[in-house]
Amino acid sequence: MSESLLLLPGPVTVAPAVLQAMARPMINHRGAAFAELLERIEAALRPAFGTTGDVIVLGGSGTSGLEAAVANTIGAGDRVLACSMGVFGERFAEIARVYGAQVESLPIALGANVDPEALRARLAADADRRIAAVLLTHNETSTGVQCDMAALAPILRAHGALTLVDSVSALGATAFAMDDWGYDVVVSASQKAFAAPPGVAFVAASSRAWERIERVATPRFALDLRRARSAKAGGQTPWTPPLPVLFALDAALQRYAAEGQDAAFARHARYARGVRAALQALGFALFSQPGAHSPTVVAATPPPGIEVAALLARLRERYGVVLSGGQAQLSGKIVRFGTMGDIRERDLLGAIGALELALGELGAGDVRAGGGTAAALEAFAELVPVG
Between 3.40.640.10, 3.40.50.300, 2.170.150.40, 3.90.1200.10, what CATH number should domain 16-257 receive? Predict the structure, then answer.
């Protein structure tokens, strides 16, 4: 077990039993045992996506899944509306640009999520339906923000553009109903809410999206979803799969199923609520706006006079607590506190206690001993339904 407590936006702390699964002997990835493994993983993932359709398992990071989503559905010259809320939304948009799309960005302030009315107005202005696809980030870890995907769904359906969703850091931590809401391509990955090691991406596509995938002319090879779907029908992947990661993912999904999906949703929401309360009690200002808070990562600006780099270094080197700083224009401005992985309330309370000590050592004058942990405990005890 690592001596450090990882509270990152990913990768996350992985349970010992999940890590141990990676040590299993290799199997024939063209044999019956692998076919059973692949089917078990797909069956476990379908409820998280909220789909009865195919879930394609790809070797690679979440970014490889996003590239697969773009490469298989967007052609050169297609007009794409990117709803970027931060670094990872910008990455999604850049992938589309690389594949030749004409990308327009919907203006969204950092710390905010997608405004349904702003999206409605922009799509309503597209009377001739020139926008072929809309890129959405379900949960933006660079800013600690999550979208209300249920509220956006009818607006998108009314327009008819293909919808591509990055749910890498949300799926498994919050409800998603791909089929009912009408989203077309949804991407996630192993190393976030499912608490498995990194190295596997998941892509689910609607029947409408598969029609588009079959006819789009964009060149692709290793990320060709047609090849992956065809191989999956025979219980295989088109290329050599990352077997140790799949063994670990299988074990992690069994743990997830044993907990129950609704319990997992409630756990992530409770943890994030406790961390937000603790940080505010310690003089931090939440970066995410009200109504846009993520359940998987809390982003906040530190108290006046506290340098982010010094705080992160003190936590890591003296207390073994690993948090993240900001990215791009938020570098040095925010702290990001992840709530995913094989962690418990006691881990969060220990990290908050270490944060109190580190703040005091760095000269934060108004930190009350125990104030953060008391606020977290009170928030953990709140009985708030997760819808």
Answer: 3.40.640.10
Backbone region of residue 119 per phi and psi (left: phi > 0; alpha: psi in -120 to 50; beta: other values)? alpha
Task: Tell whether the model's pLDDT for residue 368 goes beyond 90.
Answer: no
The HSE-up count of residue 175 (CA atoms within 13 Å, CB side) is 13
Burial class (CB in 10 A: 0-12, 13-18, 19+), 227: middle
Beta bridge partners of residue 285, listed in sequence order:
301
On whether the CB atoms of residues 35 and 350 are closer than 8 A, the answer is no
SS3 content of the chain, % helix, strand, coil (to 5): 45, 15, 40
How large is the average pLDDT for residues 294-302?
98
pLDDT digits (tens, 9 = 90+) for 10-52: 999 999 999 999 999 999 999 999 999 999 999 999 999 999 9
For domain 260-381, which architecture applies?
Alpha-Beta Complex (3.90)
Return the SS3 of 275: helix
Distance CA 242, CA 314 (A): 36
Predicted pLDDT at 387: 44
Q: Which two tokens stand for residue 347?
A: 């881990």
Ranges 66-75, 143-152, 286-295, 367-376: which has the least confidence: 367-376
What is the chain's mean pLDDT, rounded?
A: 96
